Amino acid sequence: MKNFIIILLSILLLSVSVPAYSVDWKTANQFTVAWQNDPGNIAYEGERYKSRLFLVNFKTDPGKVNPVVIGMADVDVTEFTFSLADRGSYIVGIEVVAEILQEDGITWQEINQSERCWSDMVSCTDGGVTFGVRFFPKPKVIKNLRPLPGQ
Protein backbone atom coordinates (compact mmCIF):
# COMPACT_ATOMS: atom_id res chain seq x y z
CA MET A 1 0.00 0.00 0.00
CA LYS A 2 2.85 2.38 0.86
CA ASN A 3 4.46 1.85 -2.58
CA PHE A 4 1.12 2.51 -4.27
CA ILE A 5 0.75 5.86 -2.46
CA ILE A 6 4.32 6.87 -3.38
CA ILE A 7 3.73 6.01 -7.04
CA LEU A 8 0.39 7.87 -7.05
CA LEU A 9 1.97 10.97 -5.49
CA SER A 10 4.85 10.85 -7.99
CA ILE A 11 2.40 10.75 -10.89
CA LEU A 12 0.40 13.64 -9.46
CA LEU A 13 3.51 15.77 -8.90
CA LEU A 14 4.81 15.04 -12.39
CA SER A 15 1.50 16.02 -13.98
CA VAL A 16 1.48 19.33 -12.09
CA SER A 17 5.09 20.30 -12.88
CA VAL A 18 5.10 19.53 -16.63
CA PRO A 19 3.25 21.98 -18.89
CA ALA A 20 0.49 20.33 -20.88
CA TYR A 21 0.73 21.63 -24.42
CA SER A 22 1.46 20.20 -27.78
CA VAL A 23 2.97 21.64 -30.91
CA ASP A 24 0.66 21.97 -33.92
CA TRP A 25 2.88 20.59 -36.71
CA LYS A 26 2.48 21.86 -40.28
CA THR A 27 4.02 19.89 -43.15
CA ALA A 28 5.55 22.01 -45.91
CA ASN A 29 8.79 22.87 -47.65
CA GLN A 30 7.84 26.55 -47.67
CA PHE A 31 5.70 28.42 -45.17
CA THR A 32 5.00 31.96 -44.05
CA VAL A 33 4.84 33.19 -40.46
CA ALA A 34 3.37 36.48 -39.30
CA TRP A 35 3.70 38.45 -36.09
CA GLN A 36 2.77 41.72 -34.45
CA ASN A 37 5.45 44.21 -33.48
CA ASP A 38 5.31 46.21 -30.28
CA PRO A 39 4.44 49.82 -31.14
CA GLY A 40 6.89 50.86 -28.41
CA ASN A 41 9.82 50.11 -30.73
CA ILE A 42 10.26 53.66 -32.00
CA ALA A 43 13.59 54.45 -33.66
CA TYR A 44 15.10 57.92 -33.49
CA GLU A 45 17.51 59.37 -36.02
CA GLY A 46 20.57 57.13 -36.29
CA GLU A 47 18.75 54.13 -34.82
CA ARG A 48 16.78 51.28 -36.33
CA TYR A 49 15.08 48.08 -35.31
CA LYS A 50 15.20 44.82 -37.24
CA SER A 51 13.45 41.49 -36.75
CA ARG A 52 15.88 38.56 -36.79
CA LEU A 53 14.34 35.18 -37.64
CA PHE A 54 15.62 31.76 -36.65
CA LEU A 55 14.96 28.09 -37.26
CA VAL A 56 15.99 25.32 -34.92
CA ASN A 57 15.67 21.58 -35.45
CA PHE A 58 13.27 20.39 -32.75
CA LYS A 59 14.73 16.86 -32.70
CA THR A 60 18.50 17.55 -32.85
CA ASP A 61 18.56 20.81 -30.84
CA PRO A 62 15.61 20.75 -28.40
CA GLY A 63 17.36 23.25 -26.11
CA LYS A 64 17.63 25.74 -29.01
CA VAL A 65 21.38 26.11 -28.41
CA ASN A 66 22.38 26.34 -32.08
CA PRO A 67 19.59 28.10 -33.97
CA VAL A 68 20.20 29.11 -37.58
CA VAL A 69 19.59 32.73 -38.56
CA ILE A 70 17.27 32.58 -41.57
CA GLY A 71 16.83 36.27 -42.24
CA MET A 72 16.50 39.85 -41.09
CA ALA A 73 13.49 42.03 -41.80
CA ASP A 74 12.75 45.69 -41.22
CA VAL A 75 10.73 46.09 -38.05
CA ASP A 76 7.68 47.27 -40.02
CA VAL A 77 7.64 43.96 -41.93
CA THR A 78 5.39 41.53 -40.08
CA GLU A 79 5.68 38.34 -42.09
CA PHE A 80 8.44 36.17 -43.51
CA THR A 81 8.49 33.13 -45.80
CA PHE A 82 10.84 30.27 -44.98
CA SER A 83 12.01 27.67 -47.49
CA LEU A 84 13.26 24.38 -46.10
CA ALA A 85 15.77 22.14 -47.86
CA ASP A 86 16.65 19.60 -45.16
CA ARG A 87 14.42 16.98 -43.60
CA GLY A 88 13.40 17.83 -40.09
CA SER A 89 10.96 19.23 -37.57
CA TYR A 90 11.58 22.93 -37.02
CA ILE A 91 10.59 25.61 -34.52
CA VAL A 92 10.57 29.27 -35.60
CA GLY A 93 12.19 31.99 -33.50
CA ILE A 94 12.17 35.78 -33.71
CA GLU A 95 13.79 38.63 -31.83
CA VAL A 96 13.96 42.38 -32.33
CA VAL A 97 17.45 43.85 -32.74
CA ALA A 98 18.32 47.48 -31.99
CA GLU A 99 21.08 49.02 -34.13
CA ILE A 100 22.79 52.41 -34.27
CA LEU A 101 24.39 54.08 -37.26
CA GLN A 102 28.15 54.44 -36.96
CA GLU A 103 30.05 57.69 -37.59
CA ASP A 104 30.86 56.61 -41.18
CA GLY A 105 27.12 56.96 -41.95
CA ILE A 106 27.07 53.51 -43.61
CA THR A 107 27.73 50.83 -41.01
CA TRP A 108 25.13 49.71 -38.45
CA GLN A 109 26.13 48.23 -35.09
CA GLU A 110 23.90 45.97 -33.04
CA ILE A 111 23.56 47.34 -29.52
CA ASN A 112 20.78 45.27 -27.98
CA GLN A 113 18.12 42.66 -28.70
CA SER A 114 14.82 41.57 -27.23
CA GLU A 115 14.14 38.21 -25.66
CA ARG A 116 13.79 35.56 -28.33
CA CYS A 117 10.29 34.22 -28.90
CA TRP A 118 9.81 30.69 -30.23
CA SER A 119 6.81 29.15 -31.95
CA ASP A 120 6.64 26.44 -29.27
CA MET A 121 6.30 29.00 -26.45
CA VAL A 122 2.70 29.53 -25.38
CA SER A 123 3.48 33.09 -24.24
CA CYS A 124 4.73 34.07 -27.72
CA THR A 125 2.09 32.60 -30.00
CA ASP A 126 -1.29 33.90 -31.10
CA GLY A 127 -3.85 32.57 -28.65
CA GLY A 128 -1.21 30.32 -27.09
CA VAL A 129 -1.35 27.93 -30.07
CA THR A 130 2.19 26.63 -30.48
CA PHE A 131 3.38 25.44 -33.89
CA GLY A 132 6.26 24.04 -35.88
CA VAL A 133 6.90 22.88 -39.41
CA ARG A 134 8.02 19.50 -40.67
CA PHE A 135 9.69 18.92 -44.00
CA PHE A 136 9.96 15.58 -45.71
CA PRO A 137 11.76 15.58 -49.07
CA LYS A 138 10.10 13.93 -52.02
CA PRO A 139 11.11 10.27 -52.37
CA LYS A 140 13.59 9.43 -55.12
CA VAL A 141 12.27 8.06 -58.41
CA ILE A 142 12.50 4.31 -58.88
CA LYS A 143 14.94 3.24 -61.61
CA ASN A 144 15.57 0.10 -63.66
CA LEU A 145 12.03 -1.24 -63.45
CA ARG A 146 12.00 -4.59 -65.30
CA PRO A 147 10.38 -8.02 -65.29
CA LEU A 148 12.28 -10.81 -63.53
CA PRO A 149 13.74 -13.52 -65.80
CA GLY A 150 11.35 -16.35 -66.48
CA GLN A 151 8.22 -14.22 -65.93
Task: Describe this structure as you would to a colleague.
The chain is mainly beta and 151 residues long. The chain has one domain: Immunoglobulin-like, CATH 2.60.40. The protein is 11% helix and 39% strand. It is built from one helix and nine strands, in the order αβββββββββ. The chain has one helix at 2-17, and strands at residues 24-27, 30-34, 47-57, 68-74, 79-83, 88-101, 108-113, 117-118, 131-135. Strands 1, 3, 4, 6, 7, 8 and 9 form a seven-stranded mixed sheet that branches. Strand 6 and strand 7 form a beta hairpin. It is elongated, with a radius of gyration of 23 Å. The chain starts with a helix and ends in a 16-residue tail after the last strand. 9% of the residues are buried. The model is unreliable at 4-20 (pLDDT under 50).
Brief summary of the model shown:
The chain is mainly beta.
* Overall average pLDDT: 86
What is the CATH T-level topology? Immunoglobulin-like
CA(first)-CA(last) distance: 68 Å
CATH class: Mainly Beta
| Low-confidence residue ranges | 4-20
Question: Which architecture name does CATH use?
Answer: Sandwich
- Contiguous helical run count: 1
Task: Please render the helix and strand layout as text.
Elements: H1 2-17, E1 24-27, E2 30-34, E3 47-57, E4 68-74, E5 79-83, E6 88-101, E7 108-113, E8 117-118, E9 131-135
Parallel strand pairs: 1-9
Antiparallel strand pairs: 2-5, 3-4, 3-6, 6-7, 6-8, 6-9
